[in-house]
Design a protein that fits this description.
mainly alpha, 2 domains, 68% helix, globular, binds zinc ion
């Protein structure tokens, strides 16, 4: 793919990333995405367009509000950079085809879910429920089929993903008396089933378990995290789903060999 295309796709990703920041800040606080316009949460001063350029503005302002000097979280440029790289890598991996744009959109939704769950322990229904519906619609559209699910594998994916994880959570709660997984994880797993098809669910769950354990144990041992604190599962489910979407075939082939 010509480098000009890739540069454009990266820029497009950072611009969307700027909007994803708005979603990440406002959705868990149940604020409107459209109004009011971007403003500094400290001094309430509006953010001018030239101070809202993805990546660049944060660097130019050295991470501080132009008006009150309050520091701006480095999470903002980090999300913009991640969105840019996500779009770039997805386009590079799958090439320029109709489904690629959908996959980039799915990646953006995953990114928002991951960060919100990490900080707030919730996976907002306003993303997961339309996410399930949209995944099913795409599967039944002409864009359905590899690497996305087709109609049949998507329907089974929703039922097996949502139902299976719900059952697992129910049994876990009965046995241990503790709530191990929330309904948010159940809906997220159904959404993953709708987009990737049921075949990708076992690998996704396995990878999420491995990632979650490694990070969780590392966090407790190296960073001294209180082990009684809950560890959100959503971020690992999302990362695992993305890995199985991009490299699932290779992983299965390697495993079978
Ligand atoms: Zn300010």
């Amino acid at each position: 793919m010509p480098w000009e295309y890739l540069a454009l796709i990266f820029l497009y990703g950072t611009v969307i990333g700027s909007f994803l920041n708005v979603c990440i800040y406002r959705l868990p606080r149940e604020l409107s995405l459209l109004r009011p316009r971007s403003h500094c949460p400290h001094c309430q001063h509006g953010v001018a367009w030239y101070d809202n350029v993805p990546l660049w503005s944060w660097l130019a302002l050295r991470g501080r509000c132009r008006h009150c000097g309050q520091s701006i979280s480095p999470l903002y440029p980090l999300i913009e950079l991640t969105s840019g790289l996500l779009a770039l890598h997805t386009a590079w991996h799958f090439g320029l085809q109709g489904g690629t744009l959908l996959l980039i959109g799915l990646g953006f939704a995953f990114l928002v879910l991951m960060v919100i769950d990490f900080y707030h322990y919730i996976l907002p229904d306003v993303i997961t429920l339309p996410g399930i519906l949209l995944g099913l619609l795409c599967a039944f559209s002409p864009l359905g089929g590899p690497p996305l699910a087709n109609g049949e594998t998507a329907v089974i994916g929703v039922v097996a993903g949502g139902g299976g994880l719900w059952l697992f959570a129910w049994v876990f709660e009965k046995i241990t008396g503790k709530v191990g997984m929330g309904m948010g994880d159940v809906k997220l797993f159904a959404m993953i089933g709708a987009w990737l098809g049921w075949q990708s669910l076992p690998l996704t769950l396995f990878l999420a378990g491995v990632l979650g354990s490694v990070v969780g144990i590392g966090w407790i041992l190296l960073a001294g995290r209180d082990r009684s604190l809950p560890i959100p599962f959503g971020p690992y489910l999302v990362m695992a789903a993305w890995i199985s979407l991009l490299y699932g075939k290779e992983i299965y082939r390697w495993y079978l060999a």
